[in-house]
Amino acid sequence: MTRVCPLMDPHGHVARARAQARAVLASGPPPLTPTEWERGCYVLTCFMDDLSDTRPGRRAGRGERYEQLSLADFTLREAAHLLTAHHRAWTGIGKWLPRRLLGADPVRGRALLDGHKAVAEHGDPAPLAAAAGELLDLLGGPLREGYTQRWGE
Q: Are 50 and 78 within 8 A, CB to CB?
């Protein structure tokens, strides 16, 4: 990556741009709208329920293990999105997802990450489903019946 280092800033343009960028980063991401919160809770509830329906230690040869791993990834991703949004913290992808998650909420973030690890290493969905359930409880509870999404919004 090429870095640009201004040698002079006689009119203060660079200093103002830096100050503005720092302020934006410090203020955190914009809050989710009520529609975004509702959809996120519904989606996390669906992933959590499907993950809970998988049995511990299922064999990969029958395809269920692939489903379980896929559900664990989606559950972690949606839970991380909602938990960081709850704390008005920036989220991330790749290596930044666990870093941002732990930075936003060390206890709940660790529970989600440890739960994801339990699925990956032992085929045990219970810890991740429990951590997702606790997050949903923090946000008002699971959302199943009665949820509708209007298209075009």
A: no
HSE on the CB side for 111, CA within 13 Å? 16
Task: Give the model's pLDDT for residue 153.
Answer: 58
State how far the Cα of 53 lies from the Cα of 68, in Å rounded to an integer. Answer: 9
Q: How far apart are CA 145 and CA 12, in angstroms?
A: 56
- Rg of the chain over CA atoms, in angstroms? 20
Dist. CA 132–CA 75, nearest whole Å: 7
pLDDT band at 48 (very low <50, low <70, confident <90, very high): very high
Higher pLDDT, residue 9 or 30: 30
User: What is the residue whose two structure tokens read 């509708």?
Assistant: 148
